[in-house]
Amino acid sequence: MGFDDGDQKKAAGRSAAAMSGLPDAGGKNAGIKGRPKSERETKKRVSLALLPSLYEDIQKIAYVERKSASEIVAQCLEQYTKKNGDKLKRYELIKSRKSQ
Questions:
Q1: Neighbours of 58 (CB within 10 A)
Q2: Could you identify which of 49, 57, 60, 71 might form a hypothetical disulfide with 67, taking C-beta atoms 3.0 to 4.6 angstroms apart as the criterion?
């Protein structure tokens, strides 16, 4: 008495689910995948155009500081936005006037 291909796949799926200790599709966590949502802000991926020489320098600095180039750029942009906070306030004022 052998298994056909369909029976083997079903049996393999049942044994894998049993070994993992996770509830099956009918369990209390059915339909929920991944980690729970956190309250922190998630990062947004963007594309920037940089001169090759500038990017190489950023990579060198990142290497010395043991950070990623992305962390270095984010740090610079955070400092820039703090330095220009008055412009952000002006932007909000302009946008609120236009919506009235």
A1: 17
A2: 71
Query: Are 46 and 77 contacting, i.e. CB atoms less than 8 angstroms apart?
Result: no
88 within domain boundaries: yes
Q: Is residue 82 part of a domain?
A: yes
- Give the count of domains, the chain: 1
Structure tokens at 97: 């006037």
User: What is the rounded distance in angstroms from the CA atom of residue 39 to the CA atom of residue 87?
Assistant: 28
Structure tokens at 74: 């984010």
For 22, the 3-state DSSP assignment is coil
pTM, two decimal places: 0.57
Residue 44 within any structural domain of the chain: no
Q: Taking a C-beta distance cutoff of 8 angstroms, is the pair 59, 70 a contact?
A: no
Distance in angstroms (rounded) separating the CA atoms of residues 67 and 76: 13
Query: 18-48, pLDDT tens digit by residue?
Result: 555 555 555 555 677 887 777 888 899 999 9
